[in-house]
Amino acid sequence: MLKKNATKEDFKMLTKKKPEKSLLLRLQQKAGRGRTGRITVRHQGGGEKKLYRMVDFGQEKINIKAKVASLEYDPYRSAFIMLLEYEDGEKRYRLAPQNLKIGDSVICQDKADLKPGNRLKLKNIPVGTTVYNIEIIPGQGGKLARGAGAAASVLAHEGKYAQIEMPSTEVRQIPQECFATCGMLSRPEHIYMKIGKAGRSRHQGRRPTVRGSAMIPADHPHGGGEGKAPIGLKHPKTPWGKPALGVKTRKRRWTDKYIIQRRRKE
Predict the structure, then answer these.
(1) Entry pTM
(2) Angle value at C-alpha 148, between 59 and 128, nearest 5 degrees
């Protein structure tokens, strides 16, 4: 039973069928624990049992037309997925774009029609076209703009790179040989969903989150004090006493040479 402030989605557009059995995989539940059994990622665990759908983010099936057999819900991602039946008989899952219907045909080619679901190279996509599931390195598969309602925009073509405006408003360069799918991802209303109650969040695999200021000093650097006391520190810290904000955590060398414009902060 949902509370008054919770929202419930209408899934009438989805196909009422069981998922394709050959494309299902059962993932081991780790509950945020590492090899030693200790919690390495907090606030994860529990949730409903679910099967992973093997979604094709790349373009192994090139120049082969496919027909949309069904539109389905995926418990592991926010956007809907579509089951494609290729002309050679093979079936695969892909991310479903908005306004795609069952029975429509899609294709992955270097150059194809600019309609939702078709996948082609960035060099053949005109300026102003919305795209999703964008590659960063040619042949590696889509990495960017894969969430519900996500859509990037092609701004320009300059030499070996195309300038793409990401959903975050960041503008970055991506090689022209990379593939992207035309259209906008399905389920854009997902951003307006309200959980409504704690139990529904637990069903999604989220364990409770406790504020550090609500703990005692032995459990967190922010703990202690009378009433709603401030943290008493110049900068916030993690439960283990390390700086929590403004600290680089990336181990590999990083570069921003492909970023033309940072995202606009609202």
Answers:
(1) 0.84
(2) 70
